[in-house]
Amino acid sequence: MMAYNATSFLCFTGWHAGIRRKLVQNDLEPQPCRLITIAISHYCEKARWALDQLEIPYIEEPHAPLFHRLATRRRGGKQTVPLLVSGTNTLTDSTDILQYLDTVSLDKKLYPTEPELRRQVDKLEDLFDTQLGPATRRWAYSYLFDNSPLILRLWQQGASPVERILLPIIFPLISRLVRQGFELSATSAETAYNQIKQVFDLVNQQLADGRSYLVGDRFSAADLTFAALAAPALRPENYGPQTYRIEKLRLKELPQAMVNQLQELRQTPAGAYALRLFREER
Ligand SMILES: N[C@@H](CCC(=O)N[C@@H](CS)C(=O)NCC(=O)O)C(=O)O
Fold it and tell me: Is 94's C-beta closer than 6 angstroms to any atom of ligand 1?
């Protein structure tokens, strides 16, 4: 666990200094943030990366799919993860989480203060959240979903022993929900791949002038969101939690058509950019 610093202290909002003083006097330290996740989820990776980037201490609580809903409901959340609990605050969307963390972080920031740059970051983050994230997930599931043992293995990662044991029993139900929800079909991989390429093209254009980051001259929420949500189609090193291990699929376990598209995406300027961010900023 990372060292506590001024930033991390503020993550315990709305616990102001007076309350903390009382707690310390009583030998009680405030609790770090709690991040509820599905371990392999790329939206969860987005929130996790932000916490790591801002050096805010947190405890991750990973769940298997469907079981995560018990955890989010208990905290008054929605059906999706990530969900962040910080003091009396509960944040139920990755972008809300990043914005919240940015306000409590004193030294490091994910959003520029200059209004025009901030507008550009918000616009890109929204595009990646709404277009890229769903497309990379649908693309990956389209290729992998027929391989039930592999999907089961991925979904069991980080989950408690009880969830790991129960998951195979409810797996047929979840896989039906996922197939319907993401409209997986013989053509869905191709459709999703084209959507990914459209977003990559836009990022290629943005990077064409040789800039180091998507907006301004610093790493921002736009870069982080792009790299995290592109990850299922690039399979970068350094993806995932720092406090426990998740298994990385080897390319030889993946269907050849998937590997071919993945290699193509890796070779685009946008793909190479996301891989660089995972190497240098993650
Ligand atoms: N807009 C949400 C999307 C999060 C999302 O789609 N999470 C997925 C995991 S990748 C999820 O929780 N799916 C499980 C479910 O819907 O039950 C965010 O940015 O946090």
Answer: yes
